[in-house]
Amino acid sequence: MSNQPMRPFLEAGLARIREIVGEAHVVADPAEVDRRARDIIAEVRRPTAYVYPGDREEVRLIVEAAAEHGLSLWPCSRGRNWGYGGSTPAVDGSIVVNMERMNRVLEVNEELAYARIEPGVSYRQLNEHLKTIGAKLWADCTDGPPEGSVMGNALERGIGETPYGDHFGQLCGMEVILADGRVVRTGGGAPDCKTWNTHRWGCGPVLDGLFSQSNLGIVTEVGIWLMPEPECCRSYIFEIADGVEVGQVVDAVRKLALTNAIQTNIHLINDVVSLSVATQFPRELLGGEPRLTEEMMAGQRKKFGIARWTFGGALYGSREQVRANQRVLRRALRSLGRLTFVSDLQVWAVRLLLRMLETQPEDGLVCRTLDQAIRLTTGKSLPLVRSVPHFHGIQKGIPSEYFLRHAYFKCADRRPESDVNPARDGCGLMWVAPILPMTGHHLDEIIELTAPLFERYGFEHYMALILQNPRSMINLMSIFFDPEDATERARALELYHELVTATSNAGYQQYRTSVLCMDRIFERAGDFQRLAEALKGALDPDNVLAPGRYGIGGGERKEATLDEPPRAATTVA
Ligand code: ADP
Questions:
Q1: How buried is 469 (Cβ within 10 angstroms: 0-12 exposed, 13-18 middle, 19+ buried)?
Q2: Most CB atoms closer than 10 Å: which of 258, 263, 446, 448?
Q3: How many structural domains comprise the chain?
Q4: Which atom from ligand 1 is nearest to the alpha carbon of 119?
Q5: Residue 447 burial (CB count, 10 A)
Q6: What whole-number distance in Å separates Cα of residue 452 and Cα of residue 475?
Q7: Torsions phi, psi of 146, nearest 5?
Q8: Which of 59, 77, 513 is the best mutation target for the ligand 1 pocket, counting ligand atoms within 8 Å of the beta carbon and taking the most?
Q9: Is the pTM of this model over 0.85?
Q10: 191 lies in which domain range?
Q11: Rounded to 5, what percent of the chain is helix, strand, coil?
Q12: Whether the bond into 255 is cis, omega within 30 of 0
C-alpha cells in the first residue's frame, strides 16, 4: 500500500471535509487508513481516508465538497460487509464515508409495525430499542455481525431468517442524497405524504431499486417494516438421512415454501459449513493432503454428530397454526431425514445447562463427560448443542456473534467467544454467491460445476443454500484461506474468479457480489450495463459516488489520477 504524498486537490478537499465534520471525524493517516481497510477477502483497494459524518446535512456538504475538489466517495453504513469487501471501495483512492455515527431510530410505529432509521442503526441496537420501549415487534437480523447495519445490509439485498428476511423487500420509503447535493425521497409523495412508509410502490415510477446495489445516491433514512411478535415460535432443525439426495430435499422444501408451510429463509448447509460452526480447521489431520478428504470429513461428521446436509428454520403464528404446520412438515419430510422442533422452554433448559458450564474449561473433565453423555443419547456433540440457543434466537430477530465465529475456521489463532471481529483478527474468507431457481436439478448442476473447482484448488467445498423466496435460492460458497500464506491466498483468489466465471457462463447470476469482481459482473449483460451507465451519467456525470460499484462508473476518477484541477461541479441546493 502506498505512502505517496497527497495530491493538492485531495488535501484541499480533505481540509474542507474536516471543516464540515470536525477534525476528530476524519482519518487520513496512512497506517490508520490501512488498518481500517483490512478485510477478510484476499485483496482490497486502498481508500485515501475515512470520514464519519454526524448527520444528513454533513453528508450533503461532503458530497458537494467532493464534487468541487474532484474526489470520489464510497458511502457505507457501518462497514461490516465482511467477505464482500467490508468498508473498502471498488477502486483505489475513494474516500470512505462511514455513517455509523448517524444511528438514530427516528420512529417506531407500533400500530402499523414499521420503523424509520438512519444508516448507523445496527441489528443489536434496533433489537434492544424495540425491547426497551416495550414494542411487541421484531426486527429481522442475519446470522452475521450484530453490529452490522440494518440499512446497509438491506441496500445490499442481504437475507435474514424470519418471514421478514428479504431485507430489501421490507424497505418502504427512502431518503437519498444525490451526487449534486439534492435530497430526494422515493415514493413520489409530497413531503407530508401519509403513506411514505406503508405503501411501497408510491405513485409513479418505483425508483427505490436505483439505490440498492448501486452508486446513484447515498441513502440517509429508510422506513423498514417490522414483524409483529407472534403468539408462538418454534424453530426446527432437519438433518438429511444418509442416502437421500439433497436435490430431493430441495424439491420438497420448494413445495412447502410455495404453500407457506415453510415461512423462513431456511439455510440448508453441507457438512463443511456445520464443521466450521462446530470447530476450527483440523489442520493436524491433513498429513500432506491439500484439503480434508472424504474419509477425513466422515470422521469429523462422526466426531461432532454432523449430518451431510442440515437445514433450519422456524414456524410462527398462534399455537394452533404452529401445531398444524408442524404436522405438515413432519408428513412431508418424514422419509427424508430427522426433524427436531425446538421450543422456548427447551432453549431455556439448554441455556441453564450451558450457564452451569461457563466456568468449566472446554476440554476439561466436566465438559468432556457431558459431551460423551450427549453423544450417547442424541448422537450430537456439545459444540452443536451450544449453537441451539443462538440459532433459536436468530429466528426471533435476536442477533448473535456465535455463527460469525465460523469465519475463523482457518485462522491460526483460537476464535474468540465474544467481541468477534474477523477483519481485525486476520481471518481469510471470500463469498461467491450465485442464485439458482429452486429445484433439485439446478442444485445438482451447480454442485457438478463447482465441486471439481474446489477440489482442483485444494479447498473444502463449502455450500450453504439460502431460500431467497419459494422460487429461488442463494448458493453461498465460502473460500476459507490463511491470509498469511501467500500461495494459499493466491490459490483462493484464482478459485474465487473461476467460480464466478463458471457459474456466470452456466447462466447463474450473483445475488450480490464483492469488490473483487464488480468490474466484470455485467460481462454477459451489456445492454443492462449500458442502461445503468446512462443513468449514472445523468445523475452523477463526474462519478463522485462509489465509482466502479457493481461495475457502474468504473473508469477514471478521481484524485488518485488527477494532475489537472477538476472542473468545478455545479451544485443544486
Ligand atoms: P454492514 O454494516 O451491514 O455490513 P455496509 O455499511 O458495509 O453494511 O454496507 C454494504 C455496502 O452497501 C457498502 O459497502 C456500500 O457500498 C453500500 N451502502 C451501505 N449503506 C449505504 C448507504 N446508506 N447509502 C449508499 N450505499 C450504501
A1: middle
A2: 446
A3: 3
A4: 23
A5: 16
A6: 16
A7: -60, -25
A8: 77
A9: yes
A10: 105-228
A11: 40, 20, 45
A12: no
